[in-house]
Every structure is written in structure tokens, then in C-alpha cells.
């Protein structure tokens, strides 16, 4: 493990001081689960991605297909969007932009990397097929109690739902930007509820315009208070917003995340008519 090269990238920003930092291990062939968890815990980022050879029959471009696993400092998670973007940018710097294919525990995830003006790299992942489900009244009340949010602070246009696009997230709409900005929650209480409901984050959302949103993601189950930019939750939110008719079936949404943490990032969420999958894109850059 001491010889393992651990790269550090930020996702959903071209500025090293923005977005969400992730660890990236491009060759994890010699690591077992305990070693991967130990690296993720030592690094302390919300997730670290580990790549190994693709499973037989995965397909995809030659030399550009991999198995990807994701570990928070506390546990493995089935899928992580920001670590996928970080990994794709790291690979593009070494093997060039283009198409990638990742076998994850949530399913197969295609990723496209393009070089933009000035050589900045942008990665767009395509989620597994999403779905949403209702949350029980008692569980919702417990979530609000843990967050210390009165029910009146919820935006009635955003019905609470659990949304999935590779991982499960509870989506709650904040009636005001001030409500979203004031985040001080009971870490242990929210973690216990999230573990019981198998949630990865709670996605708190405030609508700033027809296709523009501010979001925050408490992540106590991962051992961190808040995730600065959450690609899997962005994909889940895209599915949620489309299913509830909050946005058109064909739309490009802009999510601002990390501003209240001092690490601003931008996530682009694309919905396409006739395709249930969600595309989430953003820039990435290696950390000094």
C-alpha cells in the first residue's frame, strides 16, 4: 500500500480551490478492500476512486474500460459522481480525451471527456437508469428534526422523495436561499436515519431560476459533514425534477454547490427526451 500512487483532483471546477476534491488510484490491482478503505480514510476526502481491469465482456473502447470502486473514509459506496469526473480527467491527461466505460457496483457508466478552450478538461458521465420513491411521514419528520428544519421551511413545490441514479439520496426543497445557507444539523441523528434508509446523502435544493438551482449535501454516513459537489446526487435530482414535472423532459440544468463551504463548483445536468438516464458534467483539475 505504501507504493500505491494516490492522485488528487478536484471535480466540478477548473479552480483547485473550488469543487469537490477526490482521491484517484489508477492502478488498484494489488489492493484489497481494507487497503482501499485505509487509503480513503487517510486521504480524508469524501470519496476516493480505485481502478482495476474491466470485467470480462464489459466491452467499450480498447484500453479505456475499467472497473471502478469508490470508498469514503468510512465505507464503500456503490457510485460516486465527483470521483468519476476526477478519475476521467486524470485518465484523459494520460491517454487523451475521448470515451471511457466504467463498471461500477451500481452498473455500467459511460463517461465522455472533452478538451475545451485553453485545454481545460470536462467529463460527462451517463448514469444508470434512475427512479424515485416516496418517503414515509415518520422518516421525513425524523430527517427534518435532525436537520433542525421546521416543516414550514420546505418548498411545497418540491415534494420530499428518495431519488436514485446509482446511489440513494433524499431530496428536500428549501423555501429560501437563507434556509439553505443555514446548515447546522445533528450529525449522529441524521447518520442513523440515513443508514436505516440506505441513503448516501441528503440533497437540499433551492430553486434560483427555471433551470438553475443551489444545492447542498450533508454526508454523515461518509464521515464528512458536507460534500462540496455531488455528482451522483445531481443525477438523482435530475431524475426527480423530470419525474415530478419541475423541468421539461429535455433540459439542461445548472446546479451550484459548495458556495456556502467556500469551494464553489458547477454541475451541469442534462435530460434527454426518450432516454431515462441522466448526464452529469463538469470540469476537473489536478490539485497542487
Textual characterization of the structure:
The chain has helices spanning 33-43, 81-95, 137-147, 177-181, 187-197, 231-243, and strands spanning 7-11, 20-25, 48-52, 65-71, 76-77, 98-104, 107-115, 121-126, 131-134, 161-164, 168-173, 201-209, 212-219, 224-227, 251-257, 265-272, 275-286. It has 288 residues and is α+β, with helices and mostly antiparallel strands. An 8-stranded mixed β-barrel has the order 1-2-3-4-6-7-8-17. α2 crosses α6 and α3 (137-147) runs antiparallel to α5. The longest helix has 15 residues, at 81-95. The radius of gyration is 18 Å and the shape is globular. The model has no long low-confidence stretch (mean pLDDT 96).
Q: Which key features would you list for this structure?
A:
single chain; 288 residues; alpha+beta; 6 helices; globular
Describe the structure in brief.
With 288 residues, this protein is α+β, with helices and mostly antiparallel strands. The chain is built from six helices and 17 strands.
Widest sheet, order of strands: 1-2-3-4-6-7-8-17
Oligomer: single chain
Helix fraction, binned, reads: 10-25%
Average of the residue pLDDT scores = 96
Give me the number of helical elements.
6
Shape: globular
Unreliably modeled segments: none
Number of strands: 17
What's the order of the H and E elements?
EEHEEEHEEEEHEEHHEEEHEEE
